[in-house]
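agent> fetching stored inputs for the C2E docking request
agent> found them:
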Amino acid sequence: HAKDRSGDGIRFYEPAMDRLRQQRMDLERDLQRALAHHEFVLFYQPVLNVDSNRIVGVEALIRWQHPTRGLLAPGAFIPAAESMGLIYDIGIWTLDAACRQATAWPRHIVVSVNVSAAQFRHDGLIESVAGALRRSGLDACRLELEVTETAMIDDVPRAARILRRLRDMGVQIALDDFGTGYSSLSFLNSLPFTRIKIDRSFVRNLGDGSGDGAAIVRAITGLCSSLNVIATAEGVETREQFDYLRRVNCPEIQGYFISRPCPAADIQPLLDQTD
Ligand code: C2E
Ligand code: MG
Ligand code: MG
Ligand code: MG
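agent> prediction call returned; pasting tokens
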């Protein structure tokens, strides 16, 4: 700290808010560079079909291989990328990379790409999706977009139009983190989802099957089966959670119990084994 005092007096008196603002500016400058320098990578996490005991899909989860800070999770940079408008270019990169990767996998494997609220509000989304499919040559039915209720609540008629166009192209649509947002039933009915992902907060609280988490998971699973939508339980970490979900006929499972998200090279053997 003596160094701070001697060299640069102003820095020493800098209030905490200014330091935060400086960190923010550094992050924004770094993010701009990251795209150009190919510092983003996709990790992939398999989704298991419980009945067949086969991997049926893989979710793409972005990471940032930062030159000095190491491998960063999306929570550390996606919010900043959204507020600076860089999320659109990152989204195009992600779609391209995921679709290209999926062409190397068995044909029954669906790749899921997360679309944040800001991306969903942007008019270029459909064109980005069409472009990624065209450039990679991936069959549209092998791409799934994951959207959240938050992204659609402001303007449900617009959301319905966009999802309908994507469905007409053949793309699948998952409602991500279900149960944490508005969880409106009319939502489920009026929008063309192919899959509902049960948020991991409910899975975490499954316990012995007698508590609230279990009741909610049972209810969502039953609802999905009546609506003909596939339910996927997220964040399954233990044998107990897995067994409970199988007992209540939850068709798909994702979580550390099956596999952590990992680089494409590590996913490949899991897919070949079940093909
Ligand atoms: P999400 O789409 O709900 O993804 C699931 C998150 O749960 C991932 O965190 C995953 O690593 C983590 N997870 C998976 N299984 C387990 C488990 O058994 N236990 C626990 N505790 N966690 C588990 P991650 O990779 O940090 O991603 C966080 C969020 O960032 C994602 O939530 C998604 O909303 C967003 N995200 C990830 N990749 C992208 C992307 O390419 N674009 C955009 N816009 N958002 C992304
Ligand atoms: Mg997701
Ligand atoms: Mg989720
Ligand atoms: Mg989430």
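agent> quick read of the result: The radius of gyration is 21 Å.
agent> awaiting further instructions
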